[in-house]
Amino acid sequence: MLDELFRELKNKWETLLTTTNGWMDHIESEHSTNEASDSEAGVVKESMVKKKFVLESTNQELQNTKPDTDAGLLELASKVRTYLGMTDPLHQELTQRCQGDSKAQELAGSVQRAREVVSEQVIKIYQSTIVHSTGTMVGAGQPSSTTAESQPSSTTAAGQDHGSVMPQVVLKNSPAVVAASPSVGCGDLTNLSTEDKDNVFWLWRLGQHSMIDPKTITVTLKLLNGPLKQADDLRCLNALTVDTLEHDWDTGVTNLEDWIDDTSSLTGDLQVISVLQFVHDQLRTLNNNLLITVTQNERIEV
Questions:
Q1: Residue 274 to residue 281: CA distance in whole angstroms
Q2: Which fold has domain 2-129?
Q3: 213 Cβ contact partners less than 8 Å away, ≥ 6 residues apart
Q4: Which of 83, 179, 255, 256 is the right S-S partner for 58, CB 3.0 to 4.6 Å?
């Protein structure tokens, strides 16, 4: 089962890699021969640099990894998920800029379909290796906030969220995570150090404008240091819900593109790439530590 899931993921990724490279090669050739404005050419070039960087980085990891455990496969799937989330705004932007090119539009459609196929495979891996819960809060006997009405969609349709593929889970009904209220520090951002704010800058600025749950920042900072083990940290995650955490990370990634465009201090491809590398590495760590936390602490429903 493990080998089959990995083989399917790798085959579908190869199709995505080939179609994406073909699409970007076409865009590059068209912009080198057409009389595009300097500003238009610059925007397209910057988007291509970002997309190629994340694509090549993810591909290298897939080629160099052959998981032999469920945890290893989950980690690999989370890396692909990170790629889909980080590149979705770039994919949509490049698609919009290809409106007048029928060939580019055709290739963009092929890439979109390949992205959806890969996303479905990632979901399949999560569903095959993490047991679903019923969506009930631990020990409370009441509905979780991750109900069908409230949860963000994980559909892979164009223009919608490609990243939220983590199944809904709740934590074990153990003394550490019974339905007690989370500690006062859960979601309290008043005493965050400048270092902490800088470390999660891509979330902090959204938290200041109430665009994400403040508990997301608390939990994210904890997960950057490793899987959650302390009772207070587990209760904070339980109060936040995994679904909300994943959705807030997706929001941060989506808005990262706008932040880069609006930040005049970032000049040149290398500085942009360094920012993308920083957030990309963080997301790998976060997804890995969240997966470990979930698989160690989920409540299995019979």
A1: 10
A2: de novo design (two linked rop proteins) (1.20.1440)
A3: 187, 240, 244, 248
A4: 83
Residue 168: CA atoms inside 13 Å, Cβ hemisphere, count? 20
Q: What is the pLDDT of residues 123-158, one digit of tens each?
A: 888 777 654 332 322 222 233 333 333 333 333 333
Structure tokens at 281: 């590495």
Secondary structure (DSSP) of 236-277:
HHHHH-HHHHHHHHHHHHHHHHHHHHH-TT--SHHHHHHHHH
C-beta of residue 256 within 8 angstroms of C-beta of residue 279:
yes
What residues does each domain of the chain span? 2-129, 133-302
Close Cβ partners of 188 (under 8 Å, ≥ 6 residues apart): 214, 218
Summarised one tens digit per residue, pLDDT across range 151-187 is 333 333 333 343 333 444 444 433 344 344 556 678 8
Residue 20 has pLDDT above 90, yes or no: yes
Transcribe 164-207 into DSSP letters: --PPP--B--STTTSSPPPPTTTT--TT--HHHHHHTHHHHHHH
- Please report, to the nearest 10 degrees, the dihedral formed by the alpha carbons of residues 104, 109, 114, 118 taken in order: 120
Q: Over 90: is that where the pLDDT of 274 sits?
A: no
pTM: 0.58
Strand pairing partners for 171?
Answer: 298
